[in-house]
Amino acid sequence: NAGVMQNPRHLVRRRGQEARLRCSPMKGHSHVYWYRQLPEEGLKFMVYLQKENIIDESGMPKERFSAEFPKEGPSILRIQQVVRGDSAAYFCASSAGQGYGYTFGSGTRLTVV
Amino acid sequence: AQSVTQLGSHVSVSEGALVLLRCNYSSSVPPYLFWYVQYPNQGLQLLLKYTSAATLVKGINGFEAEFKKSETSFHLTKPSAHMSDAAEYFCAVSDTGNQFYFGTGTSLTVIP
Question: Residue A51 above 80 pLDDT?
Answer without folding.
Answer: yes
